[in-house]
Amino acid sequence: MPKKLDKSQIESIDRLRRNGYTSREIARIEGISRTTVFVYANRDKTGYNSTYDYSKEAIHKRGYESYGSYLKKRFMIRRERFKNRVLSSFINNRLRDIGHDKTWLAEQTGLPRQTLSSYVDGTKLPKRVCVVENIFRVLGSDYKSIEDLVEDCKIEGFT
Questions:
Q1: Each residue of 12-52: pLDDT tens digit?
Q2: Which of 124, 121, 126 is nearest to 111 (CA)?
Q3: Fold of the domain spanning 79-156
Q4: Which of 72-76, 113-117, 145-149 reaches the highest mean pLDDT?
Q5: Distance between CA 63 and CA 59 in Å, rounded?
Q6: Which whole-number Å values give the CA distances from 113 to 25, 63, 87, 110, 117, in the listed order?
Q7: Where in the chain is the domain with CATH 1.10.260.40?
């Protein structure tokens, strides 16, 4: 969610906008996101006084009661993705087979426990290939990528 700005930052955005700077340029100068700049720079046109007002309205338009309920739904959708389920299932099964838990795996891979938990729970996938390779290596697997694992699961009929 875009951050809330103090009065001096808002005044700076207004001044830069009047001087012809684009949202991208202002974001770079102020060290904030373009979304935040856009919301504050266009608050007269859009009717939103802050990014919070904008986010709240956007969430309600999508049918959610709160930002928390929106995040919970996004969390559940990610958990249902095939790759997420395959990796989660693989890690959980391997940990059970070798008699360790995700805390041990986090220590062995050098990943923060919370990050590793998101992989084990199926809510996120590692973005960097080296992280995936490291997890597979520590678990004693011959897989080199999530795609290799997914391909094997499709052959074995994982659903």
A1: 998 998 999 998 999 999 999 888 888 787 777 777 776 67
A2: 126
A3: 434 Repressor (Amino-terminal Domain) (1.10.260)
A4: 113-117
A5: 7
A6: 37, 33, 16, 9, 6
A7: 79-156
Name residue 118's amino acid: S
Tokens of 106: 């986090």
d(CA 138, CA 157): 26
In order, the DSSP letters of 75-123 are: HHHHHTSHHHHHHHHHHHHHHHHHT--HHHHHHHHT--HHHHHHHHTTS
Q: What would the CATH number be for the domain defined by 7-63? A: 1.10.10
Per-residue pLDDT tens digits for 121-150: 988 899 898 999 999 999 999 998 888 888
- Long-range contacts for 113-119 (Cβ within 8 Å, ≥24 apart)? 119/87, 119/88, 119/91
The DSSP call for residue 47 is -
Over its C-alpha atoms, the chain yields an Rg (Å, rounded) of 22
- Residue 17, classified by CB atoms within 10 Å of its CB into exposed (0-12), middle (13-18) or buried (19+), is middle
Cβ 26 vs Cβ 53: under 8 Å: no
